[in-house]
Amino acid sequence: MKIEDPEVIQLELKYCERCGALWLRLRGAQQVYCAPCDLEMLDLFCPRQVSSRPRLPANHKIEVKAQPGDLSAICGKGGTA
User: 25 falls in which pLDDT band (50, 70, 90)?
Assistant: First the structure.
């Protein structure tokens, strides 16, 4: 008896990006976590909406009161380059 069309499943070795365990996945798959870590990662909080404008974590309402010719406070004394 001869098998004409055997089904071949290609696998590749992959290190889990969370725990470092070595596991097998289908070749070309996009999984990055092993099965136990994949379940734990699903339990983590994932924000629903991504901010369209990134901001620095600081008080962004700082008022700067400077006079047009008063740069000595910022630059200091002049010097040679």
Answer: very high
